[in-house]
Amino acid sequence: MYSFKNLSEARNLTLDWLIEYNYERGHESLGGKAPVEYVRSFLPFTPQNNSEGAKGKNCCLKEFV
Q: Is the dihedral of CA 18, 16, 55, 46 positive or negative?
C-alpha cells in the first residue's frame, strides 16, 4: 500500500495516472489504441497535436483532480 505525503502529492500522482491511462496506454479492447486516440478516430475533425505537449493534454483533467 502506498502512503502519500500530502494531498497535493496524491492529486499529482492521480493526474499522472489519468493522463497515462487515457492518452498514452493502449487498451486491448480498443484495438491497442489509447481511449483518446480511439475517440478521435470517430471525429470528423481531429486537431493537430499542439506545441504544449502533455500540458495541453491534461488542461481539462486538472478540474477533476
A: negative
How far apart are the two ends of the chain, measured CA to CA in Å? Answer: 20
Report if residue 2 sits inside a domain: no
Question: Total structural domains in the chain?
Answer: 1
Q: Compute the C-alpha angle 20/2/57, nearest 5°.
A: 20
Three-class secondary structure of residue 27 per DSSP? strand
- pLDDT tens digit string along 6-52? 999 999 999 999 999 888 899 999 999 999 889 888 887 655 544 44
Q: For the whole model, what pTM was predicted?
A: 0.54
